Amino acid sequence: MNDLLGLADLSAREITELLDLSQELAGILERPIKKVPTLRGTAVATLFFEPSTRTRTSFELAAKYLSADTVNLSPQGSSLEKGETLWDTARTVAAMGVDALVVRHRTAGVPERLAALLPVPVINAGDGAHEHPTQGLLDLLTVRQHFGRIAGLKVAVVGDLAHSRVARSDLWGFTALGAEVRLVGPRLFWPADWEELGVPVTEDLEAGIRGCQVVQVLRLQRERQAAGLIPDAQEYFARWGLTPQRLARLAPEAVVLHPGPMNRGVEIASPLADGPASLVARQVTNGVAVRMAVLYRLLGGRAR
After folding, report:
1. Which of 216, 215, 219 is nearest to 262 (CA)?
2. Handedness of CA 31, 32, 34, 36 (dihedral sign)
3. Which of 64, 97, 130, 216 counts the highest number of beta carbons within 10 A?
């Protein structure tokens, strides 16, 4: 693996190896001093063109816990504001000697293009509505920790399917490891290529989550939607929002995931987000472990 651009590009074996490595490195987070010298002397640059709390911070922490140096770049205050192209900015950063570039961009395909241009590994931290591979990996790790397996589980991905990069990474990742995936959401928010995805897609929330062990609730991504697609958040919550009552009736054994940030009272009720079925906090912790594993793998880390 030279870059991490999407889970669709990885085999089941490669995904499993990354999960195993993530689990091993997760132990570092439980130490009083969260620091190992594994990537000492390397530098990781993050370039984010969209807002981020969890992904950006966890990549930076992952690098620091492995003793790599980090530099955070954003369009504001950079030469991009002076008209420099993204491609020239990325080449400039690579020429300064960084060892990996973590990129988030609103346009699908940007990380792949950068990977073709640059001599250093590129990690996709989310590109448009395409993929978010490290989110998919941390979701897999969280579910595997809870159930001890992925194969044979029924997984419902619920919400804004068309605009969510998480939906695609989860679809590819869970399917590759033997889970049965269902996509659930308003017809307006079905992916344009839904017939080619090879999994059931439904507007019926009750039918979609019934009997599932895992329910991934997606954020309603208004920033990517055409105006007026969802005119009333209360109506959306009434039809597709997940509540403790709905979960208990339709999937009483299920755990709930959410990639964040959560719109409480829109796609998920607060009592459910904070309740015993929620694995959201564990997802956040696992995000650091997964990103440590990806950096370790791409930068040639050796155990110490």
Report:
1. 219
2. negative
3. 216
Binding residues for L-aspartate: 82, 165, 219
Q: Annotated binding site for carbamoyl phosphate, which residues?
A: 54-55, 104, 132, 135, 260-261
From the annotation, which residues make up the binding site? 54-55, 82, 104, 132, 135, 165, 219, 260-261
Q: What confidence tens digit (pLDDT) does each residue in 62-116 have?
A: 999 999 999 998 777 666 666 778 888 899 989 999 999 999 999 999 999 999 9
- Whole-angstrom distance, CA of residue 248 vs CA of residue 302: 46
How confident is the prediction for the chain on average, in pLDDT? 92
Reported as a pLDDT band with limits 50, 70 and 90, residue 301 is low
* 7-131+284-298: CATH architecture: 3-Layer(aba) Sandwich (3.40)
Q: Which of 55, 44, 51 is nearest to 122 (CA)?
A: 44
The distance of Cα 19 from the centroid of its chain, to the nearest Å, equals 14
Query: In the 3-class helix/strand/coil scheme, how is 42-111 assigned residue by residue?
Result: CEEEEEECCCCCHHHHHHHHHHHHCCCEEEEECCCCCHHHHCCCHHHHHHHHHHCCCCEEEEEECCCCHH
Task: List the structure tokens of 150.
Answer: 């992925």
pTM above 0.90, yes or no: yes
Asked if the domains 7-131+284-298 and 133-282 are classified in one and the same CATH topology, the answer is yes
The reported pLDDT for the residue numbered 89 is: 87
Q: CA–CA separation, 289 vs 63, rounded Å?
A: 10
Q: Nearest-5° angle of CA 156, CA 144, CA 29?
A: 120
Residues 6+ apart with CB under 8 A from 293: 18, 21, 22, 24, 25, 137
Q: Which CATH superfamily is domain 133-282 in?
A: Aspartate/ornithine carbamoyltransferase (3.40.50.1370)
What CA–CA distances, in Å, run from 187 to 109, 190, 191? Answer: 25, 5, 9
Q: Which amino acid is at 9?
A: D
